[in-house]
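Why do we care about 3D structure at all? Because function follows from shape, and shape follows, mostly, from sequence. That is the central idea of this module. The next example makes it concrete: a single protein chain, its amino acid sequence, and then its structure expressed as tokens.
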Amino acid sequence: MKDYDESILGLIHSVYTGGMVDGPGIRTIIFLAGCSLRCLYCHNPDTWYRMRGNKKTVKEMLEEIKKYSAYYKFSGGGVTISGGEPTDQPYFLKELLKACRASGIHTVLDTSGFANTQAAEDILPYVSLLLLDIKSFDPKTYTKLTSSKIERPLSTLDMAQRLKIPTWVRFVLVPGVTDDMGEIRKMAAFLKGFDVVQKVEVLPFHKHGEYKWQDLGYEYALAGVEPPAEGVLREVQEVFGEGDI
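And the structure:
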């Protein structure tokens, strides 16, 4: 008897197969529709609204994911649930993760943090690896970037520590916004206090999604910002121990 509800519906923005940067090995990336954050450098603003998603059941998604099981086994890969913000669909997310785990598929959750503690407690036990976006360690900068509160990712990290969920932290380096070296050093020191944090991925800001903002009629506030210089990027990576904690 299945211990998950395969009939629960979710809203799916898109599916990408053959991913190799959102967790270990070769992965299927499921992008859920809907996000309550409004990150200034979001490269997928087309995922913000659930109405742009397609209704799929857990069963349908599991069947799609399992098509590539041989690749997962060969490469040590699996499925990554991303978005949008996947935790904005907590019931579907939980059942899909449970279904994947029941099928022996490695699960990665790519998130900016849970909206509440109860959802984190319900969902994180079915996550093999957490990819957690901490967009800034300064509360004011975080809110400026996301229109949300920094407590969201930090409480998720606390929960991952308590539940012993392996975690990779992601940090986007945006010139003139998140490149304050004092704050970066504070963040690096803070993360060293978490045993579950295995890696910090410093991602250079890019404008690959700017055209989506234009197509959707949104103003792209970072239009005049260029990617960070290589030397600055290397310096920040060194602060985080070249990616490893």
